[in-house]
TrEMBL record:
<comment type="similarity">
    <text>Belongs to the universal stress protein A family.</text>
</comment>
<feature type="domain" description="UspA">
    <location>
        <begin position="149"/>
        <end position="271"/>
    </location>
</feature>
<dbReference type="InterPro" id="IPR006015">
    <property type="entry name" value="Universal_stress_UspA"/>
</dbReference>
<dbReference type="InterPro" id="IPR006016">
    <property type="entry name" value="UspA"/>
</dbReference>
<protein>
    <submittedName>
        <fullName>Universal stress protein</fullName>
    </submittedName>
</protein>
<feature type="domain" description="UspA">
    <location>
        <begin position="1"/>
        <end position="140"/>
    </location>
</feature>
<dbReference type="Pfam" id="PF00582">
    <property type="entry name" value="Usp"/>
</dbReference>
<dbReference type="InterPro" id="IPR014729">
    <property type="entry name" value="Rossmann-like_a/b/a_fold"/>
</dbReference>
Length: 273
């Protein structure tokens, strides 16, 4: 892991993300690209009547000063920090910054009260997830001295998730974390017998070209199953697949991806299918 992008809006949640990124950067010798997006719009920047250019420059300088002060944290000592300021709220720019700098990961905070909503500069974290081609690690709570030792990836083990699985496997390798795989079996229409579940998993692993153990965990819902299994194995990170620009996806019905990110006590990372 060489570069980590962290969107910053000076909120408590963005500092949680920055602290986790600092722990990862320190452990892996990575650089942090701290990204701040101003709330200026094109009309303000170009207007010669309602807004004077010198006022625009003043606001930009004021935000940059606040950004510099925000990054003056003891836990960032010794870590290479590159501040990046964008003048508009364009969600795809987070991915553009990550891509142009060949970043390995985006770490961002979430309030966690209404799913993946109201993140940096009042935007929606889900939009960043939709646009991101690299993993997005969502941080809801403060994580002191975060260490990724055990990484849980939950899947329905259907062929469409093979790419996301490989990304998760590679990511676990980047973190030097133990990869744990789980299939959640629930009552109702999605229920599979043990033999049927093992057959699906076996076909998936064969197509993925890997030989790795997958646990089958029974619970009343997929969300509860993932969270409860994660607690049992003391997972440090929970991974889920996404359909990218189509929004947070899941191998099950309902907005489970958002619910897991909202209710999980550990960080959640998304991987585009």
């Amino acid at each position: 892991m060489k570069k980590i992008v962290v969107p910053v809006d000076f909120s408590e949640q963005s500092e949680y993300a920055l602290r986790v990124a600092a722990s990862l950067a320190e452990e892996h010798g990575a650089e942090i690209l701290a990204l701040h997006m101003l709330e200026l719009n094109q009309a303000i920047v170009t207007s010669s009547e309602a807004f004077h250019p010198e006022q625009t420059v003043f606001l930009i300088k004021l935000a940059e000063k606040r950004f510099t002060e925000f990054l003056d944290k003891p836990y960032l000592d010794g870590i290479k920090i590159t501040p990046i300021v964008k003048h508009f709220k364009v969600f795809s720019e987070v991915n553009d910054v990550a891509t142009s700098n060949e970043a390995d990961l985006i770490v961002m905070g979430s309030h966690g009260t209404d799913g993946l909503k109201e993140i940096f500069v009042g935007s929606n974290a889900e939009r960043v997830v939709r646009n991101s081609d690299i993993p997005v690690l969502v941080i809801k709570k403060e994580q002191i001295n975060f260490k990724a030792r055990k990484f849980l990836f939950a899947s329905g083990f259907k062929e469409e998730s093979i790419e996301a699985f490989h990304k998760a496997k590679n990511f676990a390798g980047l973190l030097s974390a133990e990869l744990k795989l789980v299939y959640i079996n629930t009552p109702g229409d999605d229920f599979l017998s043990t033999s049927d579940a093992n057959e699906r998993i076996s076909k998936f692993l064969s197509k993925a070209g890997v030989d790795i153990k997958v646990d089958i965990y029974n619970d009343y819902s997929v969300e509860n199953g993932i969270l409860n299994y994660g607690d049992e194995i003391a997972a440090d990170i929970i991974g889920i697949p996404t359909h990218g620009r189509q929004g947070l996806s899941h191998f099950f019905m309902g907005s489970i991806g958002e619910d897991i990110a909202n209710h999980s006590n550990v960080p959640v990372v998304t991987f585009k299918i």
